[in-house]
Design a protein that fits this description.
The structure is a homodimer of 203-residue chains.
Chain A lengths: L2 H27 L6 H8 L3 H4 L6 H23 L5 H18 L1 H9 L16 H16 L8 H20 L13 H16 L2
Chain A binds a DNA duplex (30 and 30 nucleotides) through α1 and α3.
DNA sequence: TGATTTTACTGAACACTGTTCAGTATATTT
DNA sequence: AAATATACTGAACAGTGTTCAGTAAAATCA
């Protein structure tokens, strides 16, 4: 009797359909301007249907966020390829910032907007855990071979993540306008600043 | 004929009334949950009235943001008192982070939410300019006496601001949950990380 | 002072938001 | 074939930012 199995599969497919429609809307119109009705229109279902698969908008956002972290992780694995630990760290920083600049809406969902964090308590490690581990391992290797000034792993993780996130998020939220950097120079400036920073804290 | 003058004054007073009601709502219920109707209720006027003084919500937010930057600047002048340049930088970092932790709603308005930046182009330097100058002068002094590793002023400003903002904003948006730091240890951790960072980039 | 114009304000209305739920139509089981 | 279970709808609710015709008070003019 394969009916319940098929139903289960169909349910998953429907969730995937909703999720991908949500992602499409986010990339086209921005997370902030995408409503449940927009997503429903996209897949030609009624708004109510979405609530049969996700208990609220936050849960849907959390699910899309999860995929977004998957993409960042993939970017890490593709670009952080060096055998030299400090060089790996540089590649990691460059990848993070480039990802943020090239995927502003995903970055918003992952690190800036409040919404997807209103999810049930204990599952907070699920999203982003892989990416954090990647950074953590990279830094642990640096510390192990003594090429990092800071020797506490958690402190190092926090510091480098904060710097990278600060650069990306200040830019995404237009706060760097106050510094009057030319628009087209911004990416290079951010990358150079990150590179510079990593050089400062390694030896 | 003092009538136009009085009218002008009354107009200013009304703007001030609206602004302070907005601030009150922001601090009590959060920026995100405060509507024009809430603010109108607070001052016992109709919603439409607010639009006689501010062309839209963004303009009001921008005005409140301006005051918030004033408060940060005041915090700088009160806490950054040392004569030693590097020590001043440490005081600045500590003040920034403490301000962010103690005034989360104001910090949101100043550095995170999109809204108040949708204001007419060229006046972007107005809000936050003073605070940026404060940091800029502090770092210029460090560079002048050769106590900073980085020698480019703009690069230094960007790096230290990004780090501080990264720490505060990741925390305000609950993204540090992934690191499983105990809630009560967060402020100390952030301050220690900032202090540590400044030590790394100075000599 | 009395009539007229200007100003300040109201609150209903518009188009939107997330979310719920009675009703319906289809698919599955008995 | 009848009964049940599932999937979906779309109107409705309470909220949002914003507009604007209508009103009442204040300032100006005669």
């Amino acid at each position: 009797m394969g009916v319940p199995e098929r139903k289960e599969r169909e349910k998953m497919e429907m969730k995937e359909l909703i999720k991908s429609a949500a992602l499409k809307c986010f990339l086209e119109d921005g997370v902030a301007k995408t409503s449940i009705r927009n997503i429903a229109d996209e897949i030609e279902y009624s708004p109510g249907t979405i609530y049969l698969y996700y208990k609220d908008k936050d849960e849907l956002l959390y699910d899309v966020q999860s995929d977004a972290f998957g993409k960042l992780w993939q970017a890490f694995t593709e670009n952080v390829t060096s055998n030299n630990t400090v060089e790996r760290l540089q590649q990691l920083g460059k990848t993070y910032i480039t990802f943020g600049l090239q995927n502003p809406e995903l970055y918003d969902l992952m690190f800036i907007i409040r919404a997807p964090m209103n999810v049930d308590e204990e599952i907070h490690k699920a999203n982003g855990g892989n990416c954090l581990d990647f950074l953590s391992e990279c830094l642990a290797a640096c510390i192990a071979e003594g090429s990092l000034i800071v020797t506490d792993l958690n402190a190092a993780v926090l510091q480098i993540w904060a710097t990278a996130h600060g650069l990306v998020s200040l830019n995404l939220r237009c706060r760097l306008k106050v510094m009057q950097t030319k628009e087209e120079e911004v990416p290079d400036t951010l990358l150079a600043t990150m590179e510079n920073y990593i050089r400062s804290v390694t030896k």
